[in-house]
Design goal:
The protein is an alpha+beta fold. It is built from 18 helices and 16 strands. Strand 11 and strand 12 form a beta hairpin. The longest helix has 27 residues. About 2% of the residues have low confidence.
């Protein structure tokens, strides 16, 4: 029978030199050197006034190292970070065995909102000094992440008031059921503790909902329409993603194409990203050159953004919704898409070639014959006339035709032509696209992105920004924001972006 050396796992004292655990070329070494020798943390030091009296405080440099090291390892919870400071030798080394509690860690992250942007800028300047920012192209994109709020607690003020009434009704139903059981018994029955707790919880939730409606003003869009508000986190919003509807934020990042350094970071509590293009460009102004190309997908395309870029003279390639339809390379992409049932964002458009893509089974404009003299003929042979007036709507010109009521009343084809019985006569409108003005900024943007050189440059966008989101979401396990409020969520997002940039610094140091 073979003999092996014994395996002994009994407790013992082992000599550990904490300074030797931080090896050159690692993320921990770059983080430790950066915080101690590169960053100006005087603003954090100014928060403490215990030089003569009071207990000793944890060094903000140590706290920043702990949080950034934890985020690089996928640890987001303050309790898990505090546990790592007690049991993980790397955290002991980076913190000098400080062992802060989870409340100190949570308080540090929560109160970092005033200093996080200056810290982010300082790290960015360090990256620039090391030659990690090429300034050839900045790619702007966003990723939608859930937050620490329930989407069931979202709605307009009217919907929230209705929800409060339903919660009270549910509580009354539990009480009425108990009273019905009590009436059929010989002696009174005490309400079970779990039922009593449930009734109190429902009433408490209903009252909190009513207080929110009374306290907060409705959120309005740019068009004046009321947006859904969330009771738990009013700054967040409901957003549609490829995996369903979430309650969260859209985290924005501007990434340099040379070494994928994040040059600007922001969050927005809106599913629409159009309003974030110019703020992200302004946020990257410290490291952006005059000839730096800005690229962004169709989510950022709008006439206001294109006109603003044209007025400021910023070179940019912003895709529009029809870019891929104009590109012959995507002519057969539809056949490769899986048409899975139950998808939230599946294509709901009618297939091409149907009589009317909008209203199936009814006559469309294509079924009418136009004569060019402000008149046309319907499928039944009656004449529709136009006053000749032309109306401009965006980039289209509209002309309206109207039939006589007497022709439509007794028409045998009326069920196929008019949907509503109370409609007197059929009306149609013909839209004609206006010729493009060569000097129009939108036309110039479309021509630039459709050119061979433009397509080559724009194709670099996805390879620049998407790996950054993949690193943060998969490697750093950023699956959701754990804080509430736009300021705190923005702090957490910038901390993760700091981790990404410091990793780039550590990798550059290994090369040299």
């Amino acid at each position: 029978m073979p003999r092996y050396k014994p395996v002994d796992r009994s407790p013992r004292f082992l000599p550990v030199v904490l300074a030797d655990q931080i090896q050159p070329g690692t993320f921990e070494f770059a983080l430790d050197h950066l915080v101690d020798h590169e960053l100006d943390l005087s603003a954090l030091d100014a928060k403490f006034c215990n030089d003569e009296v009071g207990a000793s405080a944890y060094d903000p440099r140590v706290m920043l190292k702990i949080v950034l090291l934890a985020y690089s390892r996928g640890l987001v919870s303050s309790r898990s970070i505090a546990h790592a400071c007690l049991h993980h030798v790397q955290f002991m080394a980076i913190s000098g065995d400080s062992q802060p509690s989870y409340t100190h860690i949570a308080k540090f992250v929560r109160e970092l909102k005033e200093q996080i942007q200056p810290l982010f800028t300082q790290v960015l300047l360090t990256c620039d000094r090391m030659g990690l920012i090429g300034r050839q192209m900045f790619a702007i994109d966003g990723v939608k992440l859930p937050c620490n709020a329930s989407k069931e607690r979202s709605g307009t003020h009217e919907e929230l008031a209705h929800r409060a009434a339903r919660l009270d009704k549910a509580a009354d139903k539990i009480l009425a059921l108990h009273q019905a059981q009590d009436a059929g018994s010989d002696k009174p029955l005490a309400l079970e503790a779990k039922h009593q707790a449930r009734i109190e919880e429902l009433h408490r939730e209903a009252q909190a909902t009513r207080d929110f409606v009374a306290r907060c003003q409705p959120r309005l869009s740019e068009r004046g329409q009321e947006l859904k508000s969330n009771i738990t986190d009013p700054d967040s919003a409901k957003m549609a993603t490829g995996k369903g509807v979430i309650q969260g934020y859209a985290a924005q990042a501007a990434v340099d194409s040379t070494h994928q350094i994040i040059v600007a970071a922001e969050v927005t509590g809106s599913g629409s990203e159009q309003n974030m293009l110019m703020p992200m460009i302004e946020a990257s102004a410290a490291v952006r050159a005059a000839d730096t190309l800005i690229t962004a997908d169709a989510g950022y395309h709008s006439s206001d953004n294109v006109n603003a870029l044209c007025e400021t003279g910023i070179p940019a390639l912003i895709a529009d919704n029809q870019m891929r339809q104009r590109d012959e390379r995507y002519a057969e992409q539809a056949k490769h898409k899986a048409k899975a049932k139950g998808e939230v964002l599946h294509d709901k458009r009618k297939p091409a070639g149907s009589p009317n893509p909008k209203i199936k089974g009814y006559f469309s404009t294509a079924d009418f014959i136009f004569h060019g003299d402000n008149s046309c003929t319907c499928p039944a042979g009656c004449t529709l006339r136009s006053s000749g007036a032309l109306y401009t709507a965006g980039r289209y010109q509209r002309q309206e035709f109207k039939a006589r009521a007497s022709d439509c009343q007794g028409c045998t084809l009326r069920p196929q032509c008019i949907r509503k019985p109370e409609t007197a006569q059929r009306k149609i409108a013909v839209h004609q696209r206006l010729p493009q003005d060569p000097s129009d900024p939108i036309h110039r943007m479309r021509a630039a992105i459709d050119s061979t050189h433009g397509r080559q440059l724009y194709s670099q966008r996805i390879a620049t920004v998407e790996p950054v989101f993949g690193n943060l979401r998969h490697n750093k396990r950023l699956s959701r924001f754990t804080l509430r409020g736009k300021d705190k969520v923005g702090t957490q997002w910038r901390l993760f972006c700091l981790v990404h940039n410091i990793e780039k610094i550590a990798k550059q140091e290994r090369r040299t």
